[in-house]
Write a structure and sequence with these properties.
Elements lengths: L9 E6 L2 H8 L9 E4 L6 E4 L1 H4 L9 H10 L3 E3 L3 H15 L6 E5 L2 E5 L7 H16 L3 E6 L2 H13 L6 E3 L3 H8 L11 H10 L5 H6 L3 H19 L17 E11 L2 H21 L2 E12 L10 E12 L2 H15 L6 E9 L2 E2 L14 H17 L39
Parallel strand pairs: 2-4, 7-8
Antiparallel strand pairs: 1-6, 1-7, 2-3, 5-6, 9-12, 10-11, 10-12, 10-13
Pfam families: DUF4113, IMS, IMS_C
Organism: Halobacteriovorax vibrionivorans
InterPro entries: DNA/RNA_pol_sf, DNA_pol_Y-fam_little_finger, DNA_polymerase-Y, DUF4113, Rev_trsase/Diguanyl_cyclase, UmuC
Length: 428
Amino acid sequence: MGSHNKQKVYALVDCNSFFCSCERLFRPEIRNKPVGVLSNNDGCFVSRTPELKALGVKMGDPYFKVRRLCESHNVHVFSSNFSLYTNISDRVMNVLARFAPSLEIYSVDEAFLDLTGMDEDLVAYGHRIRETVLQWTGIPVSIGIAPSKTLAKIANHIGKKSEKANGVVCLLDERLQDVALKRVSIEDVWGIGRKNSVKLRTLGIKTAYDFKAFKNIKVIQRTLTKLGRMTQDELRGITCYELEECRPKKKEILCSRTFSGSVVDLKSLRESVANYVTNASEKMRAQRSLCATIEVYCHSDPHKLNEVPYYGKDKVKLLGPTSDTRKIIKYAWSALDDLFKMGVCFKKAGVKLGDFSDDEVIQQSLFEELDDPRSAKLMKIVDEINRREGSGMIRSMACGVDNDSWKMRREKLSRRYVTGWAQLPKCS
C-alpha cells in the first residue's frame, strides 16, 4: 500500500457489540458466552454478542418473548448501564485520538478518523489501532478504511463479518469497492433507510453497486433529494461528507423515562420531572446554552384497555433565558401541577428544553431577572463534581432521596465498576 496524499482517507472504528463488550470487561467468565443487553425497563435487546445472534435472537426482540430460550441456553442478560458504557466509550475515544490528527465521535461506539496523507500501510495501521484499543481498554473494534464515510461504513460492515479480514478492511482500490458494493443490499447503505430503499428498488436498484452505477442522476435527485445524490457520489469514492470534529449544538434537549410501575401521586411525579430537568440542564450547560422554553408532558399507559388514556402537555415560555437547574425545576413544576389529575395512573413523564441561546450572548430582559454570576458558578461546580464522582452525586432535594416509586425497571443491572467507589472491582 503506497502513499495516499492526493486522496481523502477515512477510517471508521466501530466497537463490536459495545454494550455487551463493556459487561464482559469485568466478567471474564462470560467471554465466549451468549450475552445481551436490554433497553430501558428491560424491554428489548439493544446489543447482542455473536453467540446470542447464533441462537436466533434479533435486535429489538422483546425479552419476555425469548426469556425461555435465554434461560435454557444460559444467556447472560443485563439491564442497560449507561454510566458504565459512556465511561468506557470516553476511554476508547481517548485512545483513538492518538492515531489521527482529526477525529469525529459519531456515536457512543463509533468514530471516524482522518488518515489522509499517511504514508504507510493503512491495513497494518488499522491492525495497530485495533490491537492498541483492545490492549488499553479491553474493547474489541472493527475498522473500515475508504475514501468516503459511506464507503468506510461498508468496509467496516464487511470487517465485522469476515474472518479473513480479521477486523480491518481497506476499500481504497476501486476494483475492491465494486466487489464489496455488489454484496451489500441497498437497505444496508448508510443514509438510505427502509423507505428510500423501497423507492430505489422500483428503479431496479437492489445493491449498493446498482446504486453507484445508476446513471440518471436527475431521477436520483428527484427521488432522494440532494442528500441521495451525495450518498451516490460517496459510493463512487467522491468525498461529500467531511469530518465534523465539533458537533453542532442541539436545538432541543429531551429527557423522559417510562416508569416500571404506575405513579399516582403528585409528589412522585414531581420528583421524576425534577430528575429529568436536572439531566437535561446538565447536557444543556455542557454545550454552553441557556433555554427560554420548558415543555413538560406526562401520560398514562395507552395500552391498558380498562383505563381511559390521558395525555397532558404544557409549555412555559420564559421572559429571560436560564441554565439554572433550580429555576427550571420551579417552572417545570408549575406546568406539571396543572397537568396532574387525581385518579390517573401515570406511566411516563418527560421534559424538553428549547429555544436555546448561547451563554456568551444573552439578551437582557426587562421583565425577569437573569441568572446572576453566582448561579452560573454554582452550576459549573455541581457539573464538575457530578462529572468526576458520578451522575447525581450532587442534586436538588426536589429530586427526592430515592426513586422507588418512579424508577425504571433494571432488574439485571451490573455494578458501577468505574463510576462508584463502593462498587469498584475487588482484588483478592
